[in-house]
Amino acid sequence: MGIKPLLTKDFATENLKQLAVYEKTGGYTGFKKALEMQPDALVDLVKASGLRGRGGAGFPTGNKWSFLPKGMYPRYLVCNADESEPGCFKDRYLMENSPHQVLEGILIASYAIGCNLAFIYIRGEYLPQTEALEAAIDEARQAGYLGKNVLGKGYDLDVILHRGAGAYICGEETAMLTSLEGYRGEPRLKPPFPAVKGLYGKPTVVNNVETVCNLPHIVLNGADWFKAIGTPTGSGTRLWCMSGHVNRPGNYEMENGTPIRELIEEHGGGVWKNRKLKAFQPGGASMMVLLPEHLDVGLDFDAIAKAGSLAGAGAMVVMDETTCMVDAARRYVKFFEHESCGKCTPCREGTYWMANIFDRFEGGEAKVGDIDLLLDIGYNIDGRSFCPLGDASTWFPRSVIKFFRDEFQEHISEKGCPFKKSVQEAVA
Amino acid sequence: MATVQTDQVTLTVNGQSVTVPKGTLILDAAKKVGIDIPIFCSHPKMAPVAVCRMCLVEVEKMPKLQPACAVYVAEGMVVKTTTEQVNKYQKGVLEFLLINHPLDCPICDKGGECPLQDQTYQYGPGASRYQFDKAHFDKSVPLSDKIVLDRERCILCWRCTRFSEEISGERELALIQRGVHTIIGTFNDEPAQSAYQGNWTEICPVGALTSRQYRFISRPWDLDRTPSVCPGCSMGCNIQIDARNNKIGRFQSRENVAVDDSWLCDFGRYSFPNFQRQSQERPRIRRGGRLEDVSYDEAIAFTVDGLKRAGGQAAGWASPADTNEELLLFRRLFRDVLRSPHLDHRSATVVDAEPGDMTLSIADIERLEHVVLLGGQEVIDAAPVLHLRLFKSQRKGVTVLKVGAGQVAEAVAGVSPDCTAVGILATEANKAAAVDLQTKLQRKIKGSVRRLIVTTGPNGRGAKDLGILPHLGPGYVALNGQAGTGRTEWPGAGLRALYVHESSPLHGFTPTDAESMWLPTVPLLVFHRFKPSPLDEMAHVILPGHAFTEKDGTVTNMEGRVQRIRKGIDAAWVREDWLVFQEIANQLGASWSYESVGQITSDLVRGLPPYMAVNQEARVLWSERP
Amino acid sequence: MPLAKPTVTQIQELAARYPSKQSAIIPALWAVQHEQGYVTDAAMSEIAQHLGLPPSLIEATASFYSMFLTRPEGRHDVVICVNAPCMLRGADEMAAYLERQLGVRDGATTSDGAITWHSTIECLGACGGAPMMQVDHRFEENLTPERIDAIIERLRTDPLPGPPHKGEGVEAPTPNKGEDVAQPKKPARPRARKN
Question: Is C175 among the domain residues?
Answer without folding.
Answer: no
